[in-house]
Amino acid sequence: VGTVTVTVTATDASTNSSTQNITVTVVDQTAPVITAADQTVVLDGTGSGSLDVSGISAADACTASPALSYSQSTFDCTDLGQVTVTITAVDDESNQSTQDITVTVVDQTAPVITAADQTVVLDGTTGLGSLDVTGISAADNCTGTPTITYSQSSFDCDDLGQITVTITATDGAA
């Protein structure tokens, strides 16, 4: 790539010759070729994730390592689902190419439940009692307050003794 001076000589059958210098300009007008595949980004416990750029590359005839840029490379809970990311490769002669990939952003972090053991005192008249749910909570990295369900929350005289109650927190992640 660049300008080169070339000397051209013409000689006839009588060995008469003439020469002339010409300027040849070599240009690169071919854009880099991007290699990339769709990806899945799994958000971490803080609700953040990043594009894995290690599998993304660009090849070019004249530039050893074309510059790569991304329309988006970090993701959070607002990106759950499919996101189109545009990858751009630019070589040393400013030729550029783009390729879109689909990034599927997922939340696989379960909610965290906060609860303590309880003693349920049955009502002396009805023989009924309830789990105190005011001290039970759940937090999630993405979806705010998860839905909490209990395997059992009401008790009667048939439940005397120690009972295991399973508390389930479900977030809104698809």
**Structural class of the secondary elements?**
mainly beta
The radius of gyration is 34 Å
Mean of all residue-level pLDDT scores: 93
User: Please, how many helices?
Assistant: 0
Main sheet? 4 strands, mixed
Question: How much β-strand is present in the residues?
Answer: over 45%
Beginning-to-end CA distance, first to last residue? 52 Å
General description of the model:
The chain has 174 residues and is mainly β. It is 0% helix and 47% strand. It has no helices and 16 strands. The strands form 7 sheets. The chain has a 4-stranded mixed beta sheet with strand order 4-10-9-7, with no helix packed on it. The chain has a two-stranded antiparallel ribbon with strand order 1-2. A two-stranded antiparallel ribbon has the order 3-6. It is rod-shaped. The relative contact order is 0.16. The model has no long low-confidence stretch (mean pLDDT 93).
Output the keywords.
single chain, 174 residues, mainly beta, 4-stranded mixed sheet, two-stranded antiparallel sheet, 16 strands, 0% helix, rod-shaped
Describe this structure in a few short sentences.
The chain is mostly beta strands.
Q: How would you summarize the topology of this molecule?
A:
Blueprint (H helix, E strand, L loop, with lengths): L1 E10 L5 E10 L6 E3 L3 E5 L4 E3 L6 E3 L7 E4 L3 E3 L4 E10 L5 E12 L4 E3 L14 E2 L6 E3 L7 E4 L3 E2 L11 E4 L4
Parallel strand pairs: 4-10
Antiparallel strand pairs: 1-2, 3-6, 5-8, 7-9, 9-10, 11-13, 12-15, 14-16
